[in-house]
Amino acid sequence: MDQYVHSFILKHQLIKSHQTLLVAVSGGPDSIALLHYLCAIRKTTPIHLIALSVNHNLRGEDAEEDLRYVEEVCRNWGVEFVGTSVDVNSYKIKTGQGTQEAARDLRYQFFEEMMHAYEADALAMGHHGDDQAETIMMQMVRSARPEAVQGIPVERPFACGRIIRPFLCISKEQINSYLQQHDLEARIDPSNAQTEYTRNAFRHYVLPFMKERNPRFHQHMQAWSERVRSERAYINEEAKKVLEAVHFSSNVEKFVQFSNQTFKTFPLALQRTAFHLILNYLYVKQNEDISYLHEEMFMNLLNDDKPNVSLDFPQGLKITRAYDEITFSFNEIKKEGGFHHHLQVGDRAYFPDGSWMDAEWSQTDEEEDHYTYVCDSHHVNFPLVVRTRQNGDRIRVRGMNGSKKVKDIFIDQKIPARLRDTWPIVTDQSGEVLWVVGLKKGGENPGFSSGPWLRLYYKNKADT
User: Fold this and answer.
1) 404 in the same domain as 310
2) What share of the chain is helix, strand, coil (3-state, %, to 5)?
3) What DSSP string describes 243-268?
4) Pair 250, 356 in one domain
5) Does residue 236 lie within any of the structural domains?
6) pLDDT tens profile 340-350
7) Burial of 125 (0-12, 13-18, 19+ CB in 10 A)
8) CB–CB of 303/316 below 8 Å?
9) pLDDT tens for residues 405-453?
10) Top-level EC class, please (predicted)?
């Protein structure tokens, strides 16, 4: 086993001399074997080891004994130990998560804290080849999307370093043999035998059948995972070329827009991948409710003969096609959503979509950003007005001669037509347009005044 793991570590450059490695140790066979192996290689590869152990408070005294056992092992092997207890049941009530998901969240929160506390290079975990095979089979059952069936990564970024899994190249049987060879004891979690958990069912019923047909099944699955991840990384890079023709915006409301005709010039595989990259942007992280059926719905929309079609996706995401224009956006705004607010300095104006705007005096010429407007207060007639657009609205854009129609600004910035009638516009009492929020600024440049300055701050609902 040692040679397999050694070659695997070298191949993926998982461990280097003088690194600080945290090791997740539950007290079970896999993590005890991993900790022992890492202790052994300290003779040839100087590394600093810290063992981390978590009591989830789900198994009473047994879990406490697990924690004490890991601490004792670390003391005997000369390894620094950090243990903690977390309240999974309370966290479940707070978040509405299931037991396994809540336990994982709390466990990884602790791991992340320790990574930063020790400025560690990596967190080593004891997942092995059989775990990999189980994971891939479970992913295949749940999803038909290739990007969702990649298995457990050998390494991935985490906190200030990486998570590494040196044992993915070996089987559970090899780990058990290693424990016997070195006369190592481990704690056994009784829940591992409960087949009501999906993974345990695969472990007890499916994997033995596969390994009976091919004893090296775990190796095949690991090789398959590495190849799929490599090819998927390449496709993702190529798909970014598609995204160069896509307009991404987070102004007031996060949305994506592109030309259907241009999008369809790319190979189908890149179209599909770009679709999921767009969803990752909009959902922040891939939504679990998205399946290959949603993907097919989207591809059908691109090729629909009707000029105007739309799709409703999870969490209020709407995909619309208006002739050649494809738009992804959340929560379609009704036309009657217009507004008209007076805004005095020191006030806050609230808008129908849940966003707001603050007005205040500033004694410093503060740097502006996308959602902050600063202007010379001496050239503004109060009170301010925050409203939706009106026919004939024009703005004297800073740095430009003359004025420009607000309508043309919306067109230039590719703002969807459905958003234009609810877009916040700031004017002074005389009606001069000072700010088309998030797009263009007017009024006197703050650098031309000695103050005080008027400062407006817009809080986007997408960021709240």
Assistant:
1) no
2) 45, 20, 35
3) HTTEEEE-SSS-EEEEEHHHHTTS-H
4) no
5) no
6) 888 888 888 88
7) buried
8) no
9) 999 998 888 887 778 888 999 999 888 999 999 899 987 776 666 667 8
10) ligase
Q: Which two tokens stand for residue 92?
A: 């479940």
Please indicate, yes or no, if residue 240 is contained in any of the structural domains.
Answer: no
Asked if residues 453 and 388 have their Cβ atoms less than 8 Å apart, the reply is no
* Segment holding 329, helix H or strand E: strand 325-330
| Cα 214 to Cα 296: distance, rounded to the nearest angstrom | 35
CA 46 to each of CA 40, 208, 352: distance values in angstroms, whole numbers, following the listed order? 10, 38, 61
Look up the CATH number of the domain holding residue 306. 3.30.465.60
In a domain, 374, yes or no: yes
Q: How far is CA 381 from the centre of its chain?
A: 45
- Do residues 95 and 109 touch, judged by C-beta distance below 8 A? no
Domain count, the chain: 3
392 known member of a binding site = no
Q: Is 131 annotated as a binding residue?
A: no
- Separation of alpha carbons 187 and 179, rounded Å: 12
Tell whether 80 and 209 lie within a shared domain: yes
How remote is the C-alpha of 9 from its chain's centroid? 28
Residues 10 and 152 in one domain: yes
pLDDT tens for 19-45 read: 999 999 999 999 999 999 999 999 899
Residue with tokens 């806050």: 348
Q: Which residue bears the tokens 């050694």? A: 6
The reply to whether 28 sits in an annotated binding site is: yes
Residue range 182-195, pLDDT digits in tens: 999 998 876 665 55
Does any domain span residue 237?
Answer: no
> Cβ neighbours of residue 378 under 8 Å, at least 6 residues apart?
444, 449
442 is in an annotated binding site: no
Residues 249, 197 within the same domain: no
Q: Could you tell me if 208 and 170 lie in one domain?
A: yes
Boundary residue ending a domain (330, 354, 371) = 330
